[in-house]
Design goal:
Blueprint: E1 6-8, H1 38-42, E2 46-48, E3 51-53, H2 65-82, E4 86-89, H3 96-103, E5 109-113, H4 120-128, E6 138-142, H5 145-154, E7 159-164, H6 171-180, E8 181-191, H7 194-197, H8 202-209, H9 219-237, E9 240-250, E10 255-264, E11 273-279, E12 285-288, E13 309-316, H10 323-335, H11 346-357, E14 367-368, H12 369-376, H13 383-392, E15 397-399, E16 406-409, H14 413-428
Parallel strand pairs: 4-5, 4-7, 5-6, 7-8
Antiparallel strand pairs: 1-6, 2-3, 8-10, 9-10, 11-12, 11-13, 14-16, 15-16
The structure holds S-adenosylmethionine.
S-adenosylmethionine (SAM) binds at residues 58-60, 64, 68, 91-93, 96-97, 114-116, 144-145, 165-167.
GO molecular function, one term: tRNA (guanine(26)-N2)-dimethyltransferase activity
InterPro entries: SAM-dependent_MTases_sf (IPR029063), Trm1 (IPR002905), tRNA_met_Trm1_C (IPR042296)
Pfam families: TRM
Length: 429
């Protein structure tokens, strides 16, 4: 695709606050955006969280709405906590995220960019419904994403929140995004490169994220860890470090999204950035630090089965989420009436599982019940029953938002099989 370097609309300097903002009681302001006219409706439009918008010919995925919800909640919390919100939506498609950041998160300013200038009129049409271009709350550009980020960086025009929603692996945008983000700012990045995180292209993942990734049963979590690890490495190169606030995997695509805070200073140890191993022989997983590299093996290994351990890394081995931050997001979603409104409470369920996953006792990965059952040659007990038996034995265990039929736990596979067999004996007797 050939990108033209054009900028529509106006200078970046004139910021103005369209919606009055009261940090003590945050309100989603989407309802103030006027509806489409009947003529516009006839030409096709969508609704997300009550906001009407047009997609024109732009790439748009309805299924990504949850990822957008999470981004809007986080952006709004940033405004509550810092009193300001300047957003760069670097690959904005039809501009739905920009629209929601303006209308719902109360962004002071949004720079909406998409390399395809044919989407320009759709983006402008959508954003104009929040405020006129003359108000200076938004600007639309059609630049290559690295170019637009570096332009802002060179003008020392930094952002509180940068959204990089690309196709495939977005590692080529990471450095520009980190340069252009304020310290303490939030980076929301996406990868749709499930093939690499599944361990099917280790040389590609090595080139893109610096991680040699092999097939593992919890490869979708590995995908999130590969993405966070890639950002952590880029941030360290520039003298910063990151904190993951949440990590979200969605099977459609598949899509890997992480929200990270950028912090001042390098971390001078390799904590949370190392290697993970999965043993095909016994099904147990292990974390390895850099100084264990020469001694990597599984305790079940014998010379006969020494090849049973596969290792991926280096990647992020630390927490995927900040539980307290997720609770703030959930409370905000409740305040906005987003919970329970779809009849399924799916956003609430998702965030609650993510909160459970953030228990610091839980290591990386998860045990798939199908795998456990096939190793044990039994039918798996119900997930809930197995989880409570694990809790009774003193293990930490939670559901996984990534895999519905899996348990995230510090209970080793061998012990999990023992517990499952005990439960089956009890149920037969
Ligand atoms: C996944 S879509 C964005 C979807 C949008 N954020 C949403 O939520 O609906 C990716 C967009 O990036 C644009 N794009 C792809 N490569 C780009 C690049 N190098 N620079 C700028 N835009 C690019 C495409 O035109 C496409 O609209």
């Amino acid at each position: 695709m050939l990108f033209t370097l054009t900028c529509v609309c106006q200078p970046l300097s004139s910021l103005c606050s369209y919606f009055p903002y009261n940090s003590s009681s945050i309100k989603s302001v989407g309802s103030k955006v006027p509806s489409f006219t009947p003529e516009a409706r006839e030409s096709g439009y969508h609704i997300e969280r009550g906001l009407e918008f047009s997609t024109g010919d732009a790439f748009f995925r309805q299924e990504s709405a949850t990822g957008r919800d999470l981004g809007v909640l986080a952006a709004s919390l940033h405004k509550r906590d810092t009193g300001r919100l300047r957003i760069l939506d670097a690959l904005c498609g039809c501009g739905i995220r920009s629209l929601r950041y303006l209308a719902e998160a109360g962004a002071d300013f949004v720079a909406a960019n998409d390399g395809n200038e044919e989407y320009g009129s759709t983006i402008v049409e959508n954003l104009s419904r929040v405020s006129g271009v003359e108000d200076g709350r938004w600007v639309v550009t059609h630049l290559e994403a690295n170019r637009v980020m570096m332009d802002y960086y060179l003008q020392k025009s930094f952002f509180d929140f940068i959204d990089v929603d690309s196709f495939g692996s977005d590692s080529s945008f990471l450095r520009s995004a980190i340069c252009t983000l304020k310290l303490g700012g939030l980076l929301y990045v996406t990868s749709t490169d499930g093939f690499s995180s599944g361990g099917h292209r280790p040389h590609h993942s090595l080139a893109a994220y610096g991680a040699y990734v092999r097939p593992m049963p919890y490869s979708n979590e590995v995908g999130l860890r590969m993405l966070i690890g890639g950002v952590a490495r880029e941030a360290a190169l520039l003298g910063y470090h990151i904190t993951p606030l949440f990590s979200y995997y969605a099977f459609h695509g598949p899509v890997f999204r992480v929200l990270l805070r950028l912090n001042r200073g390098k971390i001078h140890d390799s904590r949370h950035y190392g290697y993970i191993g999965y043993c095909h022989q016994c099904g147990n997983s292990h974390e390895f630090s850099w100084d264990q590299l020469g001694q990597i093996s599984c305790s079940c290994s014998t010379p006969k089965v020494s090849n049973s351990l596969v290792v991926s890394g280096p990647l992020w081995t630390g927490p995927l989420h900040d539980g307290a931050y997720l609770m703030d997001m959930l409370n905000l979603a409740k305040q906005w009436g987003w919970i329970g409104c779809d009849g399924k409470d799916s956003l609430e369920k998702l965030i609650k599982v993510m909160v459970d996953e953030s228990d610091p006792k839980l290591p990386f990965g998860y045990i798939k019940l199908d795998e456990m059952a096939s190793r044990a040659k039994i039918n798996s007990p119900p997930l809930k029953t197995l989880m409570s038996a694990m809790h009774q034995k003193g293990y930490a265990a939670s559901r996984s938002h990534i895999e519905t039929n899996a348990i995230k736990t510090n209970c080793p596979m061998t012990e999990c099989i023992k517990i499952a067999k005990e439960l089956l004996k009890v149920s037969v007797a």
